[in-house]
Amino acid sequence: MKDTEALSRTALGVFRLNGQFLAVSEQLARPAGLTAAWWQVLGAVLHEPLPVAGIARAMGITRQSVQRIADLLVEKGLAEYRTNPAHRRAKLVAPTEEGRAAIRRITPGHSGLAARLADELGEEQFAETVRVLERLSEAMHALETASKPQPLGTGQEP
Questions:
Q1: What is d(CA 46, CA 43) in angstroms, rounded to the nearest whole number?
Q2: Whole-prediction pTM value?
Q3: What is the mean pLDDT of the segment spanning 75-102?
Q4: Which secondary structure element, helix H or strand E, spans residue 103, and what is its range?
C-alpha cells in the first residue's frame, strides 16, 4: 500500500470512528443531562482543575469551543471557575459536586460499552488498538510541531 493511500484510509477511518464515538457519547451522556461535548470538558477536569487552554490542548479542540462549553457548564452549575495561582487571568475550570454526579451517572453505560468492545476485539487487540492510536496521535503532533516556524534566537536560521 502506498503512503498516500495509507494516509487517506487512516484519515477516513479516524473520521468514521470520530462520528461513531460522538454518536455513542451522546447516547451515554443524554440520560445524565449532558451532551458529549459537556462530558468531554468535565472529564478533562475530573482529576485536577485546568485552564481552558489546557483543556483545549488535552482534548485537541479549540480554546474558543472549550470556553463556550465551560461557560455553559458554569451557568448550569456543573462546573465552577477557580482562581489560578499560576496565572491571574486564566481561571481554572473544576467540576462541582453536581457535575461529578452527572459523570457518575454515565459510568455504568460507559463501563458496559467498554466491556462489549473488549469482548468484540479481544483484550490484546483492544490494548494494541489503544497503543497504535496513541502512537498515531504522537506522530501527528510531532509533525505539527516540526512544521511550525521557530522563533528567532532558538538556534535556527531565519
A1: 5
A2: 0.82
A3: 94
A4: helix 97-121
